[in-house]
Amino acid sequence: MYSTLISAEQLQDLQASAAPLMVFDCSFDLMKPELGEQQYREAHIAGAVYAHLDRALSAKGDPAAASGGRHPLPPREKFAVWLSGVGFSNAMQAVVYDRNGANFCGRLWWMLKWAGHEAVALLDGGLQAWSAAGGAVARGVETPRALSHFVLAPEQAALVTTKTVAHKLGRPEQTIIDARAAPRFKGEVEPLDPVAGHIPGALNRPFGQNLGADGRFKPAAQLRAEFEALLAGRDPASVVHHCGSGVSAVPNVLAMEIAGLGRAALYAGSWSEWCSDPSRPMAQG
Fold first, then answer.
1. Which residue in 133, 145, 232, 260 has a CA-CA distance of 20 to 30 Å to 15?
2. Which distant-in-sequence residues (6+ apart) come within 8 Å of 94 by Cβ?
3. What pLDDT, on the 0 to 100 scale, is given for residue 254?
4. Considering the domain boundaries, does residue 108 fall inside one?
């Protein structure tokens, strides 16, 4: 079972073994929400299913959503229905990827853990690494698989609410790490949300810092050293990750796990939910 990363070569071996497997293409563009699906139709890993961030992995406008923010999480039950609809079952290994530097596919990795499914891994290096390794690529849309019945299991990923973040703000038992780029964290620019800034006391680690120049995750020892330097003695178990809408924070969640620092919690509502109420404290700089 692969539960963190899988290399292109390992995925090729897995495909050749005929093991129960489903690959998901999560490519997306926040400014052009239909671009990712268009790119999928032009080229994707052969057999991969497309997972649309807005339609499949978010629940905008759903009063039963499991979080707030720009990309509210769907209820676990609704997510299980989607998984069943694309033919994913509890017996399968899931592999997720994108062509965006792991910006979007981590969302599905985390959601499957949240659904109780441990056998999910992120393709290290994304579609670019797959193509470089000579992996089979297809065009168009894959033939739909037969419906399955995915059964939820106890949550294997911790979801933190705004109420909890606010209650523990400034306390040593909570360390907030913000995955947005430094200019957004500092409040110098804000292209997506109505207010610029960050949650008071948050640390900043832009999610792209987890990747090397080759687009793959840095070695575990390097990631550990970088996170320990950022935490500066704070307990890794106290970490709550967030970003703008709970999507690009996940590479930090995954990186800490690769580093052997445990699976930290995710504040999925993130800055977009936090700043929606002007009574909540906000910081800049």
1. 260
2. 21, 22, 23, 24, 88, 108, 112, 117, 119, 120, 121
3. 98
4. yes
Count of beta carbons in the 10 Å neighbourhood of residue 159? 19
H/E element holding 120? Answer: strand 120-123
Residue 215, domain CATH: 3.40.250.10
Q: Tell me which of 75, 103, 138 is where a domain ends.
A: 138
pLDDT digits (tens, 9 = 90+) for 198-211: 999 999 999 999 99
243 is a catalytic site residue? yes
Minimal CA–CA distance to 90: which of 167, 148, 35?
A: 148
- Which tens digit of pLDDT belongs to each residue from 135-156? 999 999 999 899 999 999 999 9
Prediction pTM value: 0.96
> Which of the residues in the chain have pLDDT under 50?
none
Q: Which of 164, 199, 23 lies closest to 96, judged by CA?
A: 23
Range of the structural domain that residue 115 is part of: 5-138
Please list, in sequence order, all residues whose beta carbon lies within 8 angstroms of the beta carbon of residue 257, skipping any fewer than 6 positions away.
Answer: 4, 263, 264
